[in-house]
UniProtKB/TrEMBL annotation:
A GO cellular component entry from the record: cytoplasm
Swiss-Prot/TrEMBL site (Participates in the substrate recognition with KAPA and in a stacking interaction with the adenine ring of SAM) positions: 15
Underlying gene: bioA
Lineage of the organism: Bacteria, Pseudomonadati, Pseudomonadota, Betaproteobacteria, Burkholderiales
Family stated for the protein in its record: Belongs to the class-III pyridoxal-phosphate-dependent aminotransferase family. BioA subfamily.
Organism this protein belongs to: Aquariibacter albus
Protein name stated in the entry: Adenosylmethionine-8-amino-7-oxononanoate aminotransferase
Reaction catalysed by this enzyme: (8S)-8-amino-7-oxononanoate + S-adenosyl-L-methionine = S-adenosyl-4-methylsulfanyl-2-oxobutanoate + (7R,8S)-7,8-diammoniononanoate
Amino acid sequence: MDLAERSRRAVWHPCTQMQRHEAEPLLAIARAEGPWLIDEQGGRHLDAISSWWTNLFGHGHPRMVEALSAQLRTLDHVMLAGLTHGPVVELSERLGAATGLGHAFYASDGSSATEIALKMSAHAWANAGQPGKQRFAGLAGGYHGETVGALAVTDIPLFRAAYAPLIRLAATLPSPDARGAQAGEDARAVALRVAAEIDAWLAANAHTTAALILEPLIQCAGGFAMHDAEFLRRVRASCTRHQVHLVLDEIAVGFGRTGTLFAHQQAATPDQALRPDFLCLSKGLTGGVLPLSAVLTTDAVYAAFYDREPARGFLHSHSYTGNPLACRAALTVLDLFEQDDVLARNAATAAALDAALAPLHTHPALRHARRLGMVWAWDLAPEWAAALAHEPGGFAGAFHRAARARGLLLRPIGPTLYLMPPYGLGAAEIAHLAEGTLAALEATLAGARAPDPRAAPHAPLP
């Protein structure tokens, strides 16, 4: 029995209808190097979605291997309640310096970071004498994790519907998705319109609302909806004016993905940095090597818990909070950014890949070509999506299989095709990714039933 079949019989895989793998075998990976995943038969697959958006610098990066090996020989794990250690202190100091925020609280995954931020926000308001501020708000299409607490602010019905009786739903406010532009609007105009609607809602509901949570610049799981940075500036001002915490979820978009170290930094002005009340980090925090998440907050929030009374403290914990190995991985990521001019190199890589992807930008079956930093996305035209509905998994399933056959790991989200590759791709890898993606799209469309031949040419976002 091969590894894929053994896995099907013993492992419950995430976000998966397991029956699917009776007909479609799992891909068994034996090892990885750089941007490549290598299966048991020696087949090479370009990890074009960075292993669920986590891997920044490729697999097995020599500096990461060296740093983790040294840390393992020194200190593997110690509880963080009542104790501390060098890696967690240094990481907290460096993240604070990079963000302008204060203390860092650690967990192991993005959903936990979301729940920590929400709990901390409501508790801080209660400690400050406003116990009625217990409600949360998020954006349409927002994604902040799949644990029960995180699902309250995740607006993706597929993930939430089965657990509706368990969930204390947050308010869902409009998304500034630039694809929603009305006649005569550009992306900035959409941002201004939606920000005004959110300001009006906050004005009416601030007395019961603890926090607004959102993903800055890109709502990834919500179809890679992108918005103008002006939205962040306006929402920050609204939250300050109405005394509602602003939680920025940079779990997917942090650490260089959008072209800056953190996405929200693109909303800074020459006169003022933009700072949230809470910043959630994970995924790229360790370069995709070990599980770690962090929530950074302001000194004002921290001060609301600083008291002799234990019940006024933040009584939340995880067994592996601040694990030294994971913290060392995160420190290595920060070292690479500081020492290797990663952002400038990414800009060059992105320009080269964007040029190679030109046939996709104007493909008649695709709509809304968009890119920010090292993230690309397109939407399949509705008539083509309908013509592929007979395929197992629809367009997303058919494209995934076609890409896999061409040495690419790509997983569209519904009708949205996206690329989020590791940093540092070479010329051959860029060509493989661009040519393979186009070939996979053409092969997928070839299996469509009666597509509408009048598909209009693609129009880029305003």
